Amino acid sequence: MQVSSLNEVKIYSLSAGRSLPEWLSDRKKRALQKKDVDIRRRIELIQDFEMPTISTKIKVSRDGQYIMAVGTYKPRVRCFDTYQLSQKFERCLDSEVVTFEILSDDYSKIVFLQCGRFVEFHSQHGHYYKTRIPKFGRDFSYHYPSCDLYFVGASSEVYRLNLEQGRFLNSLQTEASESNVCDINPVHFLFAMGTAEGKVECWDPRTRNRVGLLDCALSSVTADTEIEGLPSISALKFDGALNMAVGTSTGQVLLYDLRSSNPLIVKDHHYGLPIKSIQFHHQLDLIISADSRIIKMWNKDTGKIFTSMEPEHDINDVCLYPNSGMLMTANEAPKMNIYYIPVLGPAPKWCSFLDNLTEELEENPESTVYDDYKFVTRKDLENLGLAHLIGSSLLRAYMHGFFMDIRLYHKAKMMANPFAYEEYRREKIRQKIEETRAQRVQLKKLPKVNKELALKLIEEEGEEQQFSKKRKQKNLPSLLKDDRFKVMFENPDFQVDEQSEEFRLLNPLVSKISEKRKRKLKILEELEAQGGEEEEEPEGKASDAESSESSDDEKGWVEEVRKQRKLLRQEEKLKRQERLKEDQQTLLKPQFFEIKEGEEFRSFKDSAKKQKLMKKTLEDRLKLEEKLGTLNVSDTTVGSKQATFKLKKSEQHRKQQEAEKQHRQERKALRRSASHLKSRRGRGRLFH
């Protein structure tokens, strides 16, 4: 069971998790449940609550016992019994279902509007009757007092089929070219239909006359909305006797009072997708509107978002189980989603165990894997003095840093900075005092951080105000008053470093401009210190002098850049000289190295010789190798060159070979002396 939370509203997805295939045996299913934790923890509220490919519509019977859904492929309808938590029956159809309606309290009377202009009636045992309407239908509604079915579609007429008499009645002639949706008010039975032109026509079934017309296309277009074409009506739903919600093809939902032609509220989904479904939740005064991507729940009085859901697959239809917090969706996927939102209401009677389950989950929330760990970078470890732990089991490398135990982190932080809490407390007290001071009547003061930048912005703002007054334009908002940039003038970390190389090269004329601002800053600081009134602007030069200065600045821009570059070079030169002095003052201590056994020390001249040899060309190196006798170049019979190399033997290898040769000679001499002694002993025995 997947849990998500938005605006502190918990949403439990009961259909999350993998589903097991039907062809698996019970033994294999049990074996999988033992091995896989996800399969063992999943909740299958209704067995096989899915379609072969996709589901298009889903509805609940009035008694709440049966849930019916249609989908493809092949076109079919499935009925699920909530008391048995399983499928009741499945019936295949000849063509795809556009929409359907349950006329009875249970599944005994169902009407299907199919895409081939067919209207099919089903009873409890199955297929009952089939008829055809003149034009392709898109939606229909049932008028209970007269037993009439009203069909709207690709025509200007509304077809009426009386189920008591079993024949078509005179159709209603409308001004629309096509109609998309329709609905009948459950209180006074007013018939409303949404047209492709973005209008809603209301008809009285008793007199068969039009009694009202709403132009929703114009009302849906506000200052914030951007539309590409004329909005058409894609969803329509009545709420009580006076309220009606209308959904457009451009993603807006309009709530109307039937006594007014202007909408009470306009809610935009901001996706530009047609509204597929609209539902009302009376206990919390919510409207549940859905397009193919998102389901939004919002207050019908204020328009404030209550919560929202974004399923993995596109949405085709939404059904709210009556008097409960359960929500079901038909999707562009085999599995139909079931959501349980405890805030909306209790669980239905047939799955009351969900309330106990969610209460246990709220009492014992499962901590995520990373709740007990803190992510730190290498720099953080150096600041805490824990850099020596890198590579140990206490740190787990992850991306550009490490995970460490949160308890160890807090201990190390307390040891590294034991007065952190006191500093934090002082900072909070200072912020509170500044907040109380801000409520007093104050003179205009410059911020503590980036004073020169603030003065520059004030000057530019004054120039823009004068310019806008002349041109009669609106003033743009100031950065000093914008909350998004407030930290830049409060936090010292955002202080502009005017001595940095980047700042000096990007602002070549900053020296002349900053002198004026520094004068102003001094004047303002003196006024603040004396407690006098702040002047609007200090005395400056005449307008002619200012204009000449601006022209000189434009001409001398290149010279200023050159001066800045020269200054930077001089500073670098001075830094180098200081480094050289420091190097000369430092005394180098001799270092001793130990030579391994069996190796000889070679002078540093060999490395110098090798470096000189590497600098020579290939031709010179070959000539040198020929002189030494390690290279022999000769011509072949074909006319090409043949080169043979003799590898140089190291001094150690040469000595080793000489030692081996001497050892062999000694062994030969010993063998000769031994054989000579044996021969002499043999001769002595013969003489005796």
UniProtKB/TrEMBL annotation:
Domain Nucleolar protein 10-like N-terminal: 1-364
UniProtKB keywords: Coiled coil, Nucleus, Repeat, WD repeat
Basic and acidic residues: bias regions: 648-663
InterPro entries the record matches: Beta-prop_NOL10_N (IPR056551), NOL10/Enp2 (IPR040382), NOL10_2nd (IPR056550), NUC153 (IPR012580), WD40/YVTN_repeat-like_dom_sf (IPR015943), WD40_repeat_dom_sf (IPR036322), WD40_rpt (IPR001680)
Biased composition range(s): Acidic residues: 528-538
Domain NUC153: 482-508
Compartmental location: Nucleus, Nucleolus
This protein's GO CC annotations: 90S preribosome; small-subunit processome
Protein name (record): Nucleolar protein 10
Region listing for Disordered, in residue ranges: 528-557, 642-688
Protein's UniProt keywords contain Endoplasmic reticulum: no
Residue ranges of domain Nucleolar protein 10-like second in the record: 369-417
Lineage of the organism: Eukaryota, Metazoa, Chordata, Craniata, Vertebrata
One Gene Ontology term from the biological process aspect of the record: maturation of SSU-rRNA from tricistronic rRNA transcript (SSU-rRNA, 5.8S rRNA, LSU-rRNA)
Biased composition (Basic residues): 664-688
Family membership noted in the UniProt record: Belongs to the WD repeat NOL10/ENP2 family.
Coiled-coil residues: 558-587
Keyword Transit peptide assigned: no
